[in-house]
Design goal:
The chain is of the alpha+beta class and about 170 residues long. About 30% of the residues are buried. It is built from 5 helices and 10 strands.
Length: about 170
């Protein structure tokens, strides 16, 4: 892998383009993936949900996470919360439908856990699924690795407009 990175940097220098160092995003084998860059770890009738490593890499430093209350109902493909970066907010969609049974409270004080450990400490919610058949519409790790969706949508955070420079 180091040889490939070195070769890429040399090729970039010959072509006179800049290539920022960026590690490859990781994909975990036992998870299911939505095309909106959320993952689900299925355990019986429950699913632990978070955003993928690719999503957190794309978004950058996450400064705030908004999550639902325990007991809230989530629907597959619908927004259940949001991650906020410095100048924008990105919705987080649920890959499965069901009832929220647990929320990762650590994210309220340490939202950077999503950046540092998206698949372990950065999980967002646990859902008791009401339709296990929805799992079949999600991608496995191989499908997600071969054809990852590349576009994200995010909303600009509302606030005072910047004053024009003079």
């Amino acid at each position: 892998m180091a040889a490939g990175l070195l070769w890429g940097k040399r090729a970039a220098s010959y072509l006179r383009i800049s290539v920022p160092f960026r590690a490859f995003s990781s994909v975990v084998k036992d998870l299911k993936y939505a095309d909106s860059h959320e993952w689900a770890r299925i355990n019986g009738n429950s699913a632990t949900i978070g955003i993928t490593d690719q999503a957190q890499n794309y978004l950058g430093d996450i400064v705030s996470v908004k999550l639902p209350e325990v007991g809230a109902i989530v629907s597959q493909g619908s927004s259940f919360g949001a991650v906020e970066i410095v100048k924008a907010t990105s919705d987080v969609n649920s890959p499965v439908s069901g009832k929220v049974i647990e929320v990762n409270q650590q994210l309220t004080t340490s939202p950077g856990l999503v950046n540092r450990s998206p698949y372990e400490k950065g999980w967002m919610i646990k859902v008791e699924m009401n339709n296990k058949g929805e799992i079949n519409s999600l991608m496995d790790s191989e499908q997600y690795s071969l054809n990852p969706p590349i576009f994200f949508t995010y909303k600009r955070r509302k606030g005072p407009k910047a004053k024009p420079r003079r």
